[in-house]
Design a protein that fits this description.
single chain; 4 domains; about 475 residues; 14 helices; binds zinc ion; D-amino Acid Aminotransferase, Chain A, domain 1; Helix Hairpins
Length: about 475
């Protein structure tokens, strides 16, 4: 019969091991129920023998009382920001700069996914998780140890016999897309504003004072680099990633090494689409020179390290709010619904209007005024509304009814035979005339200078022009 102390230690070892298999190897060997049974046994044992509780016991993840406020942690090595690139040319330029500073040397790059979360630092002293902090301004961050401990994939002690005196892992705390949707549904049900993206929800969760609340958020972690390390020699980024994983920290599996810029670009381009299949959001890649000695010699500019760069994919989709639906009348009388949006950054531009195609599409997608909608902009085409987020509804959204009369001239509208479009049947519809004039002026831009949109408005509104021939009579005068 083992002593209670031995049994408690054995349970901790088993729980840590199964956590490791689940979160780091993604190869669980026991069911969640069996895992919970082990945890329950440990909890009962510790309740009966409070002296057996250790700070790194898995029962202590959601241990303490809410904290009063956040202590400030000064980072021993600053957490620097990194430069961004946005296309292949800029990345080639980065590669040229690196090779120029390392003449004649082979260079290997490590490419990792850039997870859309919150950067953090994790300090392990003698192998035990001691302090976790946010990046903050890069020099100082907030002590969020109490909340980080609730992340089940974060080891409270490192999986190694040869414990380094000091080991700082850095990484990204994130939230899955599914978890964000679940939390936003719950928030809107309570009349709270939904989180705009997983980064905001993660940051908001880490800033909770009560770790029990944070535990409900199911935050996750990927470790991706080292900070200050004592009592251990690591020579490259690839080796660092292997060490992090070996020590029991979750490392993103989609990592790759490249000796040539062409192969690297092919890999990065391939992920532009593939990344949407991941259960979490990524907005780019991080490219690092692998060799630590080369990193050291490349050094830093005043702003950022010279040996690392981010590659950002174009944000082609974004969530925003649908403020209203305006029905416009085109030159042939076709009524088109246009979405007025809360302005949002999309593929390098600010988008405030988007196409909704036609009445059937609005009904089919159940898009309501006030909805949170997903907007897409591909290349140069007009942005359009892909779908609404029913989970984000508050109950104040209004269904949209297509008008039965022309919103401009009041004439009845008719549905095209077998078509999806409604058309204004008004013979003297000013909206149609304006659109015809604009179209005409645009096509003959060289001949009718100065006939801009505002001029067309004025001419039609003051009845000076009732048809295109009127325009010629006017210019003759
Ligand atoms: Zn009309």
């Amino acid at each position: 019969m083992p002593s209670s102390a031995q049994r408690a230690e054995e349970l901790r070892r088993q729980i840590d091991h199964h956590n490791y298999l689940y979160y780091v190897e993604a190869k669980p060997e026991i069911s969640d129920r069996e895992f919970d049974r082990l945890l329950k046994e440990l909890q009962d044992l510790e309740a009966a023998h409070p002296d057996l509780v250790t700070p790194d016991s898995p029962t202590q993840r959601v241990g303490g009382q809410p904290i009063e406020g956040f202590a400030i942690v000064k980072h021993r090595v600053p957490m620097l920001s990194i430069d961004n690139t946005y296309n292949a040319d800029e990345l080639r330029e980065f590669d040229r700069r690196v090779r120029k500073l390392l003449p004649g040397e082979p260079v290997t790059y490590v490419v990792e996914l850039k997870i859309d979360g919150v950067a953090i630092s994790l300090i392990y002293e003698e192998g035990r998780f001691a302090v976790g902090a946010t990046r903050g301004d890069g020099e100082r961050g907030d002590d969020v140890t109490h909340n980080l401990k609730t992340i089940r994939g974060l080891p409270l002690r490192l999986r190694t016999k040869k414990l380094p005196r000091l080991f700082e892992a850095r990484g990204e705390v994130y939230m899955t897309t599914q978890e964000l949707a679940r939390i936003n549904r719950a928030r809107t049900a309570k009349g709270l504003e939904p989180f705009a993206n997983p980064r905001n929800s993660t940051a908001g969760s880490l800033k909770l004072l009560d770790p029990r609340q944070c535990a409900q958020r199911n935050l996750q972690l990927f470790a991706y680099s080292l900070g200050v390390v004592e009592g251990l020699t690591i020579k490259s980024q690839w080796e660092a990633l292997e060490h992090l994983k070996e020590y029991g920290l979750p490392v993103n599996p989609h990592i790759a090494k490249f000796d040539s810029i062409d192969a690297m670009l092919e890999h990065i381009t391939g992920w532009a689409e593939r990344r949407h299949e991941l259960p979490y959001e990524t907005d780019g890649m991080v490219i690092k020179v692998n060799d630590f000695d080369q990193q050291r010699r490349l050094g830093y500019t005043s702003k950022a390290p010279r040996w690392v760069v981010a590659y950002k994919y174009e944000a082609e989709q974004a969530l925003t709010r649908l403020l209203k639906i305006e029905v416009q009348v085109g030159k042939t009388g076709i009524l088109t619904p246009v979405a007025h949006l809360e302005p949002v950054k999309l593929a390098g531009t600010t988008v405030a209007r988007a196409s909704l195609h036609n009445a059937d599409e609005i009904a089919r997608k159940d898009i309501r005024i006030g909805d949170t909608v997903l907007v897409e902009k591909a290349g140069e085409i007009i942005p359009y509304v892909i779908r609404s987020e029913p989970g984000a509804r508050t109950g104040s959204e209004k269904a949209f009814h297509f008008p039965s009369k022309c919103p401009v001239c009041g004439a009845p509208v008719e549905r095209e035979e077998g078509g999806a479009y409604f058309r204004c049947m008004g013979p003297a519809c000013p909206a149609q005339l304006k659109e015809r004039l604009r179209f005409f002026a645009h096509r003959n831009a060289m001949d009718i200078e100065g006939l801009g949109s505002a001029m067309v408005e004025q001419l039609v509104d003051t009845s000076l022009v009732k048809s295109i021939p009127d325009l010629y009579r006017m210019t003759l005068d």
